[in-house]
Amino acid sequence: MSNRTEDTDRIYVDQRGIIERFSFDEQVVRVFPDMISRSVPGYGTVVEMIGVMAARYARPGSCLYDLGCSLGAATLAMASLVPHRDCRIVAVDNSAAMIARARQLIDEARPSLSVNLRQADIRDVAFENASVAVLNFTLQFLPVADRDTLIRRLASALQPGDILLLSEKIRFEDPHEDDLQQALHHAFKRNNGYSDMEISQKRTALENVLIPETLATHESRLRAAGFSEVHVWFRCFNFLSLVAIR
Ligand code: GEK
């Protein structure tokens, strides 16, 4: 359990009459590292391995895209492990509060690769000279109708042998397994100090904001877009991470 510091996520501790749609505002940004590590099983491992995989697949002189970068955790993992100093990272998030805080953290970290931080919607970004694209728990926040287009645009920006790293919360076709995996995820959150009320209020706030799809849907979208291989390299309960090779 983490200490009760001012950076601890207590957003849903008190019972609320009305629960507003979840948004990545200043209140969330302030507690984000604590929130995501207590809510997403394996988050630290996933971020670290994004660095490891980017180091293996990044082509010299190319761009690495961190899409929905939040505070730049994946950006910093890639910057510290990718050996080609002429690679550039483009890190994009549409939350002004996230980008402002990410800028401070990235300045403080003084990464050895150049980082271009942009406040933009990832649906509007033109991908140029890409060899690695990261969607680390971001695609799940796009309207389902917009997901095929983004994945197709990424596939056509990447060259054969390049990679897309896609991490998502997923749902399961079988209702029994879906209930079970959700219950296990909630047990993980309770073990990290969230109360049943916090878990349930956050869940309500995320309804129709975070829309999970099945692994089969992700796999078929990636293949239809032109990725030749799709591998699950990490999974814990209803969270997984895929590497898709162009
Ligand atoms: C990490 N990748 O720490 N355009 C740009 N950004 C968006 C969009 C969009 N359309 N929709 C949502 N976001 C990070 C964690 S968090 C995951 C990613 C989570 C951004 C949103 O503002 C938020 O910062 C991020 O996607 C999702 O490795 O909180 O579960």
Summarize the structure.
The chain has 246 residues and is α/β, with parallel strands linked by helices. Helix content is 41%, strand content 19%.
Q: What would you say this structure looks like, in words?
A:
By secondary structure, this protein is of the alpha/beta class. The protein has a domain at 43-170 and 210-245: Vaccinia Virus protein VP39 (Rossmann fold, 3-Layer(aba) Sandwich), CATH 3.40.50.150. It contains eight helices and seven strands. It has helices spanning 26-39, 43-57, 73-81, 96-109, 147-157, 175-191, 196-206, 215-225; strands at residues 63-67, 88-93, 114-119, 130-136, 163-169, 229-236, 239-245. The chain has a seven-stranded mixed β-sheet, with helices on both faces. A hairpin with a 2-residue loop joins β6 and β7. α2 packs across α3 and α5 (147-157) packs across α8. The radius of gyration is 18 Å and the shape is globular. It starts with 25 loop residues before the first helix and ends with a strand. Bound molecules: ligand GEK. Ligand GEK is lined by residues 24, 36, 47, 68-70, 73-74, 92-95, 98, 121-123, 136-138, 141-142.
